[in-house]
Design goal:
Blueprint: H1 3-8, H2 28-47, H3 51-56
């Protein structure tokens, strides 16, 4: 998780883990780069047109070796 979001909420260090129950739980930066020719106009309304925002909003960008690992399940052709 991006620590700046917790700091902005006056809650740094409060969240120790998360469970994402969301079929759209993804690395938005990679998703946008991979699908920009098909979906870019629609998804930029949600994620903006700024790659820095894509990075800031992608939890997988903030994982560190010292942290508890994420268990990620993925599917193909869904």
């Amino acid at each position: 998780m991006n620590p700046e979001f917790l700091i902005a909420s006056n809650a740094p260090g409060v969240i120790k883990g998360c469970i994402l129950i969301d079929a759209f739980g993804l690395n938005s930066k990679d998703f946008i780069e991979a699908h920009k020719n098909i979906y870019f106009e629609q998804i930029k309304l949600i994620f903006t047109n700024n790659p820095e925002n894509w990075h800031r909003g992608s939890p997988s960008e903030f994982l560190e070796e010292s942290e508890i690992p994420f268990l990620i399940f993925t599917g193909e052709n869904q």
